[in-house]
Amino acid sequence: MHQYYRFCKDTKTHQDSIETTLTGKPIFSIPQINKGTAFTHEERHDLGLNGKLPTCVETLAQQTDRVYFQLNQQKTRLQKYIFLNALHDKNQVLFYNLIRQHIEELMPIIYTPTVGTAVKTFSQKFRRTRGIYLPYSQCKTLEAIEEYLDNRTNHDIDVIVVTDGEGVLGIGDQGVGAMDIPIAKLAVYTTLGHINPNRTLPIMLDVGTNNQACLADPMYLGWRHKRVENDAYDDFISLFVQAVHNKFPHVFLHWEDLGRENAARILKKYQSKICTFNDDMQGTGIVALAALLSALKKSKQKLIDQNIVIFGGGTAGLGVAQRIALELQAEGLTEAQARAKLWIIDKSGLVLKNDMDITQEQQPYARDPELVNDWENTDLYHVIKHIKPGVLIGCSGVHGAFSQEAITTMAAQVDYPIIMPLSNPNSKIEAEPQDILNWTQGNALIATGSPFAPCQYQDETIPISQCNNALIFPAIGLGVTAVKPKHLTDTMLSVAAQALAEKAVTTNQHERQLLPTICDLPHFVKQIALAIAEQAVKEKHCQPFSSEEIKKRIDEISWLPEYLPVLKKGKCT
């Protein structure tokens, strides 16, 4: 691994600094050390930059104002996304300072929903590489994977986000284009969770694609092959996990956008072997549970009294179901009683034990066919009609799936229906929030998967909370990085959900707002991280740190965008 720079402490000032072997123009090509017009006159002299920059030495704040002005010259969200990625590739500190200064405005551009568009145009818009690509065709041995990992830019790694691109954001198999997702996720880890970007790594497992549009596109940059499946796929994943564990034994491994048949199986197989996390399943489940707990508290109801319908029996839907079931068990129900509270509807209707296409993960929630013998149908409307649920959650990716008939029937049966259409982007949502309010006479408590502007019902302006996974995975990453537990357990995740729900209740001003906003998170992310880390200590999955020690560790590892002195090699000892 080439080391053109290293982080160190200056012997004279004891200040954190960066030492580099580079001089002259190449310095501008390294985003981790490039400061652009903020290089001081002394740095310009020592590093061979005199004459290569305009005379003025700017502050980070001045630079941020300029790039924000430039950003606003871009016409579309995708153009802004491309501009921001180019900035990320040039000057890391400036990029993150800009995002932090304008979180509410820019988070939907660097993350969902804009990143979904970027994924589909990845090959056509490709400009500069970031992260590590592991092609199955060339990485069939442990040694080969480790060799590829050794070509990473950052030496020490705390957080990895990895995808194989099969199930992206409700738009399906996108092949190598899915690399934009780990890059975006890690940007969120840093922006909202203070994770040091110099200790992160995005990885693309290029195991082919079944997307014919990608395979037929002459510009497609991935491996032009049908997806590797079955034993060959499993063997590849096993080698990858082993290589990661060998190179980074204390890393937090975050899986993203794996296919429906693989996500739960892989998580189950490796969660006892490495500190790992699947955001589509666990992240979605945590945030959905937090919103649900918040809604129940606001409407003075109990979780244990609810029948809960989940429309969509894929990775996200089952992740939500599992998280709610675990919470119900914590409240005193048996495993069977908890699952009996959950009704899963998939593409064929209510999931039944005699369904031919039922998945292994759906089986624990499948109902006896005799239960529905006298039902006219097992679609959403008839499930609602017969079981009278208080909670309806959508994870289907089917736009308009929540019909007016189904919602009005639900609203007629309960006083405060809790309705959460979580599919994103907006084009995939099961029902528009404004329609839900109209159909329920304004009584629904709503959270969505994508951002929506406040809705108007009669004389009231009602905020729509977003069940954005970004509200929780940065805090998990921060807590895990602080104490480095061997595993991430279900009880640690339950603590995370409860901590987020508590913040929703204490920080939100409007009684209909179920979750904090993205802008709120940086103010209390350390508190949620502390709760997660304390639970890890309680379960003896890490060293026995005290709460004060954990707080200190969290503060020490928390990264903020600020320029460090850049020194020529030999000046930092």
Keywords:
573 residues; alpha/beta; 7-stranded mixed sheet; 5-stranded parallel sheet; 22 helices; 17 strands; globular
Task: Record the SSE blueprint.
Layout lengths: L4 E5 L6 E5 L20 H6 L13 H12 L5 H14 L1 H10 L1 H8 L3 H7 L1 H4 L6 E4 L6 H8 L9 E5 L16 H14 L6 E7 L5 H5 L13 H18 L4 E5 L6 H8 L5 E3 H20 L9 E4 L3 H16 L4 H6 L1 E5 L2 E2 L29 H8 L3 E4 L9 H10 L4 E4 L11 H7 L5 E4 L6 E3 L2 E3 L2 E2 L6 H11 L6 H18 L13 H18 L8 H11 L8 E3 L5
Parallel strand pairs: 2-17, 3-5, 4-5, 4-6, 6-7, 8-9, 8-11, 11-12, 12-13, 13-16
Antiparallel strand pairs: 1-2, 9-10, 14-15
Helix pairs in contact: 2-4, 3-4, 3-6, 8-11, 9-19, 13-14, 13-20, 16-17, 19-21, 19-22, 20-21, 21-22
Word description of this protein:
With 573 residues, the protein is an alpha/beta fold. 42% of the residues lie in helices and 12% in strands. The protein has helices at 41-46, 60-71, 77-90, 92-101, 103-110, 114-120, 122-125, 142-149, 180-193, 212-216, 230-247, 263-270, 279-298, 315-330, 335-340, 380-387, 404-413, 433-439, 473-483, 490-507, 521-538, 547-557; strands spanning 5-9, 16-20, 132-135, 159-163, 200-206, 252-256, 276-278, 308-311, 342-346, 349-350, 391-394, 418-421, 445-448, 455-457, 460-462, 465-466, 566-568. The strands form four sheets. Strands 10-9-8-11-12-13-16 form a seven-stranded mixed β-sheet, sandwiched between helices. Strand 11 (391-394), helix 17 and strand 12 (418-421) form a beta-alpha-beta unit. The longest helix has 20 residues, at 279-298. It is globular.
